[in-house]
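Input structure tokens:
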């Protein structure tokens, strides 16, 4: 039996999320999405221990179950069907963030799974092809448009500015000290479940219809993202916080579901305890919170948030400087 494992980081979007869903960024010239890959990662193992035509799946604490290649609503089926359509493979997920965390976990899973399958086959593909195909497979599974920021964070790691230009996004790795960012950035899972698809679809529909408030809010998000990129490059802690706060204020204008009462309460607690800025990761509605804070306020902020959110936990304090990797394990 041959086996391989793949691992890929999740991400926290500092500013400019949602604009990476085509064609939103194109409709707002100068749009950029800024994110950081997190120490929180997906780890998946694959082996060829199944019979031909079969696909089995398990998590680290569950028994094996068969999957059907006819099930077009399953992401594992979609990725395996692309790279190993003959089957004969087993997939075990060893590590992943909570479902609905808002950290792009499903995209990181798809990237890690693809990397493991490619390693198992002794094959390679270009990063651009990997991102494009996995994005499209996710859209097919979700039956909804998807962006690319999650996939690029998983593939490349580090701190990225994704310039949303005509033709193809332009990727800019930002020269930011990982230690400097680590000391000021904390991501906390709130325990408030969310679904990004519904919020994103509302935004897309309203923008394509030219709804003035949505257009203005996306313009403000794009401006905040540009300011965030510049502040990160300058190492300006205050300006980064101002940009994140401005992004969140604009994002809350997109739909009431972006900031439910539970998330609003936790935001107020974090700010009262010393955070410079707080925003939901991803489309909002719950999931994880990105907290930008002075280094000396981290412990107090974490304690206050975890006391107020019994199902919460600190997801990540650090930045993953590397992207997806795979290795043979047989």
């Amino acid at each position: 039996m041959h086996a391989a494992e793949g691992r890929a980081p999740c991400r926290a979007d500092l500013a400019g999320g949602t604009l990476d869903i085509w064609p939103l960024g194109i409709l707002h010239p100068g749009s950029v999405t800024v994110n950081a890959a997190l120490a929180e990662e997906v780890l998946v193992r694959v082996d060829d221990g199944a019979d031909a035509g079969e696909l089995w799946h398990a998590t680290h604490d569950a028994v094996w179950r068969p999957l059907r290649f006819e099930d077009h609503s399953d992401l594992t089926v979609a990725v395996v069907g692309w790279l190993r359509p003959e089957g004969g493979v087993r997939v075990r997920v060893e590590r992943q963030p909570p479902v609905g965390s808002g950290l792009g976990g499903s995209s990181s899973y798809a990237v890690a799974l693809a990397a493991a399958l490619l390693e198992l086959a002794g094959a390679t593909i270009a990063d651009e092809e990997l991102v494009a195909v996995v994005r499209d497979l996710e859209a097919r599974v979700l039956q909804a448009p998807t962006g690319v920021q999650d996939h690029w964070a998983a593939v490349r790691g580090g701190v990225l500015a994704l310039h949303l230009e005509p033709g193809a996004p332009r990727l800019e790795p930002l020269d930011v000290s990982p230690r400097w960012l680590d000391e000021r950035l904390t991501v906390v899972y709130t325990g408030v479940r969310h679904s990004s698809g519904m919020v994103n679809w509302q935004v897309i529909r309203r923008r394509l219809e030219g709804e003035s408030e949505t257009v203005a809010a996306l313009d403000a998000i794009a401006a905040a993202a540009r300011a965030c990129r510049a502040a990160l490059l300058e190492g300006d802690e205050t300006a980064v916080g101002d940009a994140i706060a401005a992004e969140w204020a604009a994002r809350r204008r997109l739909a009431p579901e972006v900031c439910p009462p539970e998330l609003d309460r936790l935001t107020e607690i974090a700010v009262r305890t010393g955070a410079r800025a707080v925003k939901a990761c991803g489309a909002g509605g719950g999931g994880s919170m990105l907290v930008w804070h002075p280094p000396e306020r981290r412990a107090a902020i974490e304690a206050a948030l975890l006391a107020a959110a019994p199902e919460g936990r600190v997801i990540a304090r650090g930045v993953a400087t590397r992207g997806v990797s795979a290795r043979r394990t047989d």
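The CA atoms of residues 36 and 159 lie 4 Å apart. The longest strand covers residues 32-47.
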